[in-house]
Amino acid sequence: MNQYNDQIETKLIHRQISDGELKTGAVNVPIYLSSTFHQSSFDEFGPFDYSRSGNPTRQVLEQKIAELERGTKGFAFSSGMAAISSAFMLLSTGDHVLITEDVYGGTYRFITNILTKFGIEHTFVDMTDLNAIEQAIRPNTKVIYMETPSNPCLRITDIEAVVKLSKANNCLTFLDNTFMTPFFQNPLELGVDVVLHSATKFLSGHSDILAGLAVTKDEELGERLGYIQNSFGAILGVQDSYQLIQGIKTLGIRLKQSSDSAQLIANYLNNHPFVEEVFYPGLPFHPGRDIHQKQARGFGAVLSFRLPNREAAKAFVEHVRIPVFAVSLGAVESILSYPTTMSHAAMPKEERERRGITDGLLRLSVGLEHVDDLIRDLDQALQKARRIHTPAF
Ligand SMILES: Cc1ncc(COP(=O)(O)O)c(C=O)c1O
């Protein structure tokens, strides 16, 4: 693109047009449904040979996410977990990973049940506590893994401070940027080595595809991750790559609108007497809010709130009408989920509760419905749940 393409809203939509598309004038990326590519020379192969190694449609997506995250190399995978697991393949037997305590449940499952089989050790640590991180670093620690804001309690990690610690100890940093997306946060600019995404969420935005992305800035690290992507083979299919490119075009406007609504909903819930606690970085008392504001450009569209117990959460879910009650987040429709049996089902009860994921906790990913309708809906469901929970009320 030319020099006018320097704001992210523009970058989300436009890209370099290939010679082939210049000929047809196609506005959208062609879907190259081809597993293999004819080589016109016996001795010299063209830019593509086999679609696991590279495909022109997927390449547009990979270049797009690299540009948005301000990295050099992007990689598209068949799911967020495929991206995360592939990144962990950069490690070897005997290595150690330091990982944030309130990590996404699927990542928890991979670290605790799969990586251990390959002799890769791990320690969970409170990533908001720099002393605890320093204490937990071992001579064989090779990766520090962050999520900020974290899932589901929106805890904030000081990215630059963790990067500083990791560089001083010769380890890499990985960061799951699913909640913020490159629209709000660019961890590579803060020194993070590998940025990971469940692109199933805000980046695609329509609850239609599963996808994962990884981005690196360091060329050599990018080469290594590219080698793993091709060897392990958990690549994103061509049609899903096209769909994700289309989703990314509207990311900015969707995330802005949903985050504005999330702020109003968080304010509303915070003033509701039946709600015990609200977790949202846009609330003035949210721990680490100043750090978040230093490293991100928005508060995001996900919030969590605590009701007294499981029965109250159940009654609320049974009476709410607009949000879908489902696993996942980051879509045009609001999605209400119950971390205990959904995103964090893989975590043992004691571990979950120690992380604040109690039986009364609900997570709301705010969509694009009118915020007045959403608040009215939450209000009537809270009233009913309160009446069931406290019959005298
Ligand atoms: C923060 C976060 N990271 C990673 C994942 C895994 O992504 P996927 O479901 O696309 O494999 C999820 C899924 O919910 C998530 O919320």
Describe the structure.
The chain is 39% helix and 14% strand. The chain contains 15 helices and 12 strands. The protein has helices at 8-13, 19-24, 56-68, 80-88, 105-114, 130-136, 159-168, 181-184, 219-232, 238-249, 251-270, 289-295, 310-319, 349-354, 371-389, and strands at residues 73-77, 96-100, 121-125, 141-147, 172-176, 194-198, 212-216, 277-279, 302-306, 324-325, 335-337, 361-365. Helix 3 (56-68) packs parallel to helix 10 (238-249) and helix 13 packs across helix 15. The longest helix has 20 residues, at 251-270. The termini are far apart. The mean pLDDT is 95.
Offer a concise description of the structure.
By secondary structure, the protein is of the alpha/beta class. Helices cover 39% and strands 14% of the residues. The strands form two sheets. A seven-stranded mixed sheet has the order 1-7-6-5-4-2-3, sandwiched between helices.
Distance between the termini: 61 Å
Number of helices: 15
- Give a count of the beta strands, DSSP E runs of length 2 or more: 12
Question: How would you sum up the global shape?
Answer: globular
Note the run of SSEs as H and E.
HHHEHEHEHEHEHEEHHHEHEHEEHEH
Question: Structural class of the secondary elements?
Answer: alpha/beta
